[in-house]
Design brief:
The complex is a heterotrimer of chains A (366), B (179) and C (338). Chain A is of the alpha+beta class. Chain A has a single domain, classed as Cytochrome-c3 Hydrogenase, chain B. Chain A contains 15 helices and eight strands. The relative contact order of chain A is 0.19. Chain B is α+β, with helices and mostly antiparallel strands. Chain B has a domain of 102 residues: NADH:ubiquinone oxidoreductase Nqo5 subunit (Beta Polymerase, domain 2, 2-Layer Sandwich), CATH 3.30.460.80. Chain B has a five-stranded mixed β-sheet with strand order 1-2-5-4-3, covered by helices on one side. In chain B, a hairpin with a 6-residue loop joins strand 4 and strand 5. Chain C contains twelve helices and no strands. Chain C is 67% helix and 0% strand. Classes of the chains: A alpha+beta (366), B alpha+beta (179), C mainly alpha (338). Chains in contact: A-B, A-C. Chain A: Its main location: membrane.
Chain lengths: 366, 179, 338
């Protein structure tokens, strides 16, 4: 008698394609997954606990380290929450700078995703192309705030540093450059038959499932829902700019891929308008009390990070430190659908689907 | 039940904040639906959170929460199909979980709070209503020790499985031997 | 060489053969060293990098340093591994890789074994390396290695068939399985006499199946570093790992040489007026183009999925190869015989 057995395979926490220390325990029947259990927490640093003993300015560097691929949007969500509580007015120049860095960050984040996703699928070259172009953004940020990854740039009430002379010009030079490079990306990858065969029709779910699982960002929009917080619940200055929200139809990995590439284009469109309207002079810090003490109460604010809806829920007791600070991390919530998508897929599709969700483990574990 | 009174303005020239805010109507509707469909005393408190742009907040009694959650999801007038956020808060005298709900079709938002006893915290799980609650509830269980009866797989998610204590509790002793 | 082979074996001849074998091995090792260097450089340029440039002038000694490192590394054998098979697998992979080189003719006079069944000898021996990969994957007692080994077995079996059948057309046209005769059949002065044009279906199928046999991108599923970490050789370190790497590159050499012989006219010049250039140079040029083609693929393609690989092998390549055989038979029957 031939007896077959399921193979219990531990993917991660050290695995090249789990994007950090994420781990999935899969049961394999041949190469087909019959059960998947995600395990996380390897990068849990207790940000929320640490924040309870820090004042709001001190928390900002911790947000950099949550979604370390998109630190600017994390900075923003915390500052935005505190500003909402205190009813602060942000000087226009500061708000423009914030918007510009957030959109640059979205481009940079999607570039990292694009490169690593193709690396997961087995193509090595696009990764280096993406990082070449991301490097320009990183250098722009470096010039602005002296850091390449963890910027600690925004403050409650404004931004820490004004743009140096000529910085805005460099941003406007970057926009046409990146647009031409996007065409190169499309020529290089988007039509490749093997690539399309690998991602089309993989990891499909419908809009209802996406909503019930609380998915956000490209993971939600790929099902055809037009839901971008920059449009539906505008924050910052997004209601001043014209841009489109790309949506998919089928809800597969290919749609998520197209949406992210198109979002880079739309971000560049926003950037072009923002650079044109950038105010000449003005303050970069609003009138903020010396010690930031939001009044007693609670607030939940949310913005559209490259990965989806990042939210910040603050409970304040009127002290300089938050009583409770909770981040709604898009990677964490988006990842919940993973086990459902994996059943019946092959080991290879595991990587395709996981990469398509676009997680950053620093954010999953917080 | 106490509802925050809003000064009602009649003249259109007056500032917008003086108008009865549209959220007040949402809140009233939710409260009346909950009271009539779920239980007379399902809602312990309801008010608008002015700080958060007038977000309607409902405090729902834990024993009626699961039924209320089903209604929030299925009742077309509420239609909260999207669970944005689920946080747990330790208020030292009691525990609380906050659900930020959203209706994708109408854009209506609600913050629902459910309070529970601190010594033996337990709140019915809403994973069956919103699958998005699954890991969030595990996280709250892990970090605050709130039990969620009805959860399909209530295990620690962030901390190691053999960890003692729940770190986000206010009385948690941070100096573990491991630290 | 041919005359020596036909004469009775004496001690002197044996010494010459041994010296020639060692010389060939030296050439092959040199090729492997610089193929790796070349691959890293070429892919580096394609990927906007500079490639190795630290060890020696232009990084020329990089591979030497890497090999030294591998030889000096600790040789670990997992405790639960099947020791005998674990040790045997790299050897078993390596020996056939070198053995197949015996039948490759480089020029009219420079060849080693003049086998009548050269094609069959090549295909049969190269199949043994599959066995070694499966053994290595099994003996490592590692799940990733096992999956890699099984993938490799499935892939090799699926692609060996179209590979062999794609050669049949060439064999029919030249009427021999002797690789030298096949090259002779492609003479005629012009490049359109080479088999890759009349046998374009066979050539296409052969190239695809060959890339798959080599486990190179886009068919590098047994290794698939983004899924199976490193596949069958995940537990191998030091010189055992070096043997697997060496095998892979020796097969690159072998496949490039075989393609040149079967389809690209071996040592023949592409045009009569170019025949002044020695045949060996033409051979090396054609050979280098194939090697470059393999490296080029690696820099530009993503990896296919297992089921797609199998489907492609059985549903596309195999029927195409068989059609090619029938078309060739019909062509010979109608145009050549009469």
């Amino acid at each position: 008698m031939i007896r077959t057995e399921e193979l219990l395979l531990n993917v991660g926490p050290q695995h090249p394609s789990t994007h950090g220390v994420f781990r999935i325990i899969v049961k394999l029947d041949g190469e087909v997954i019959t059960d998947a259990t995600p395990v996380m927490g390897y990068l849990h640093r207790g940000t929320e606990k640490l924040a309870e003993n820090l004042n709001y300015t001190q928390i900002i560097p911790y947000t950099d380290r949550m979604d370390y691929v998109s630190a600017m949007t994390n900075n923003y969500v915390l500052c935005h929450a505190v500003e909402t509580m205190m009813g602060l007015q942000i000087p226009e120049r500061a708000e423009f700078l914030r918007l510009i860095v957030m959109e640059l960050q979205r481009v940079a984040s999607h570039l990292v995703w694009w490169g690593t996703y193709l690396l997961d699928i087995g193509a090595m070259s696009p990764f280096l192309y993406a990082f070449r172009d991301r490097e320009i953004i990183i250098n722009l940020f470096n010039e602005l705030c002296g850091a390449r990854l963890t910027y600690n740039y925004m403050r409650v009430g404004g931004v820490k540093w004004d743009a140096p002379d000529g910085w805005i010009d460099k941003v406007s030079e970057f926009i046409p450059y990146m647009e031409s490079k996007l065409e190169e990306y499309d020529r290089l990858v988007s039509g490749n038959e093997i690539f399309l065969a690998r991602i089309k029709g993989i990891g499909v779910y419908d809009a209802e499932t996406a909503v019930s699982y609380g998915l956000s960002g490209a993971n939600l929009r790929c099902t055809g829902l037009n839901w971008d917080l920059r449009k539906t619940e505008p924050y910052s200055l997004y209601d001043r700019f014209a841009f489109d929200v790309p949506v998919g139809r089928t809800g597969d990995c290919y749609d998520r891929y197209r949406i992210r590439l198109e979002e880079i284009r739309q971000s560049l469109r926003i950037l072009r308008q923002a650079v044109e309207q950038f105010p000449e002079g003005g303050e970069t810090m609003g009138k903020v009390p010396r010690v930031i003490r939001p009044p007693e109460g609670e607030v939940y604010v949310r913005i559209e990070s490259p990965r989806g809806e990042i939210g910040c829920h603050i409970v304040s007791k009127g002290k300089a430190e938050p009583y409770r600070l909770k981040f709604r991390r898009p990677s964490f919530v988006n990842l919940q659908i993973l086990p459902k998508l994996l059943i019946g897929e092959t080991m290879t599709n595991l990587i395709t689907i996981l990469g398509g969700i676009d997680i950053v483990v620093g954010e999953v574990d917080c | 039940m106490s509802e925050e009174e809003k000064p009602g303005g009649t003249l259109p020239e007056e500032e917008e904040t003086m108008q009865p805010s549209p959220q007040q109507a949402d809140l009233d509707e939710a409260v009346s639906l909950l009271c009539s469909r779920v239980h007379d005393e399902a809602v312990a408190e309801a008010y608008l959170n002015e700080m958060n742009g007038g977000m309607p907040v409902l405090i729902i009694r834990s024993e009626h929460w699961l039924e209320a959650a089903r209604m929030f999801r299925s009742e077309p007038a509420l239609g909260c199909d999207y669970l944005r956020n689920l946080s747990g808060v330790d208020y030292e005298t009691y525990m609380e979980t906050v659900y930020h709900l959203l209706s994708m079709s109408t854009g209506k938002q609600y913050a629902v709070k459910v309070r529970t006893d601190r010594d033996n915290p337990s709140i019915p799980s809403v994973t069956a209503v919103w699958p998005a609650a699954n890991w969030n509830e595990r996280e709250v269980y892990d970090l605050l020790g709130i039990d969620f009866p009805g959860h399909p797989d209530l295990r620690r998610i962030m901390m190691p499985d053999d960890w003692a204590g729940h770190p986000l509790r206010k009385d948690y002793e941070p100096l573990d031997p491991e630290v | 060489m041919g005359d020596l082979l036909r004469e009775p074996l004496t001690w002197g001849h044996a010494l010459i053969f041994a010296a020639a074998a060692i010389l060939l091995m030296g050439i092959v090792l040199g090729f492997v060293t610089y193929a790796i260097y070349f691959e890293r450089k070429v892919i580096g340029w394609m990927q906007l990098r500079v490639g190795p440039n630290r060890v020696g002038p232009f990084g020329l000694l990089q591979t030497v340093a890497d090999v030294l490192k591998l030889l000096l590394k600790e040789d670990t054998i997992p405790r639960k591994a099947d020791r005998v098979l674990f040790v045997l697998a790299p050897v078993l992979a390596f020996v056939p890789a070198f053995a197949v080189l015996a039948v490759i003719p480089y020029t009219q006079s420079l060849y080693f074994a003049d086998l009548n069944v050269g094609v069959l000898y090549y295909v049969a021996l190269s199949g043994i390396s599959t066995l070694a990969i499966v053994l290595g994957g099994w003996a490592s007692n590692n799940k990733y290695a096992l999956l890699g080994g099984m993938r490799s077995a499935a892939q090799m079996i699926s692609y060996e068939v179209p590979l062999v059948i794609s050669i049949v057309g060439t064999v029919m046209l030249s009427g021999s399985m002797n690789l030298r005769t096949i090259v002779e059949a492609q003479s005629g002065g012009w490049f359109w006499n080479w088999h890759f044009l009349p046998q374009f279906i066979g050539f296409g199928v052969f190239m695809i199946a060959a890339v798959s046999e080599l486990n190179r991108t886009p068919f590098d599923l047994p290794e698939a570093e983004s899924e199976l970490v490193a596949g069958y050789h995940v537990e191998y370190s030091g010189f055992r790992f070096a043997f697997f790497m060496l095998t892979e590159y020796v097969y690159v050499y072998a496949i490039a040489a075989l393609t040149t012989v079967l389809f690209l006219g071996g040592w023949h010049a592409p045009a009569p007026f170019l025949a002044v250039v020695p045949g060996l140079i033409w051979f090396i040029l054609k050979f280098a183009c194939i090697v470059f083609f393999l490296f080029w693929l690696r820099a530009t393609f993503p990896r296919v999925r297992v089921d797609q690989l199998m489907g492609f092998g059985w549903k596309v390549l195999l029927p195409l190869a068989i059609v090619n055989v029938f078309v060739t038979a019909g062509y010979i029957e109608l145009f050549i015989k009469h």
